[in-house]
Each structure stands twice: as C-alpha cells, then as structure tokens.
Amino acid sequence: MKGEMTSWWLFYDVKARINHKCQLNNGRKNGYCLKYENEERVSAEKYKNGNKIKEWFNFIDFQRENKLSDLK
C-alpha cells in the first residue's frame, strides 16, 4: 500500500533472545536490520524492497554512511 510506514519487528532465537530486528514494510525488509549474537549487536544491514544493499560490522563505518536518525 502506498504511504504505508516502515516499522521495526523483533525476531528471537530458540532461547528467547533477540536474534535480529528489522524495519519491515508490507512484510519485506525495507530499511535497516540489526543482527545480534548472544544479545550483542554484531552487524547492521540495509535493505530496499527485500534486497540487501550493504552490511556493516562496526559502528564507525555504519555511522560514516548513514544517519542515526534513520534508526528511529
């Protein structure tokens, strides 16, 4: 649907810990996806209409290329 907002969704592992959280729009990854291992963030990915554009493994590189306000 045109104009529908992208919202954050949380996904959990079998031990009920956050595995990743992603911005979804109409059921597709659209925006950012933060991946976790043992409750620690290990990477950030960027998606457009379900297609992965890029992945960052450290915060400094991510911050150079993106606005933190986009994570809201």
Describe this structure in words.
The chain has one domain. The protein contains one helix and five strands. It is mainly beta. The protein has a five-stranded antiparallel beta sheet.
* Element order: H for helix, E for strand: EEEEEH
Return the average pLDDT rounded to an integer.
89
Query: What structural category arises from helix and sheet content?
Result: mainly beta
Q: Largest beta sheet, briefly?
A: 5 strands, antiparallel
What is the molecular shape?
Answer: globular
* Proportion in β-strands: over 45%
Low-pLDDT regions:
none
Give the tally of β-strands.
5
Helical run tally = 1
Kindly provide the radius of gyration, computed on alpha-carbon positions and rounded to a whole number of angstroms.
Answer: 12 Å
**Helix share bin:** under 10%
Report strand order across the widest sheet: 1-2-3-4-5
List the domain count as a whole number.
1
**How far is it from the N-terminal to the C-terminal residue, by CA?**
21 Å
How would you summarize what this structure contains?
By secondary structure, this protein is mainly beta. It contains 1 helix and 5 strands; from the N terminus they run βββββα.
Labels describing this entry:
single chain; mainly beta; 5-stranded antiparallel β-sheet; 1 helix; 54% strand
Write the SSE topology.
Blueprint: E1 7-12, E2 18-25, E3 28-37, E4 40-48, E5 51-56, H1 59-65
Antiparallel strand pairs: 1-2, 2-3, 3-4, 4-5
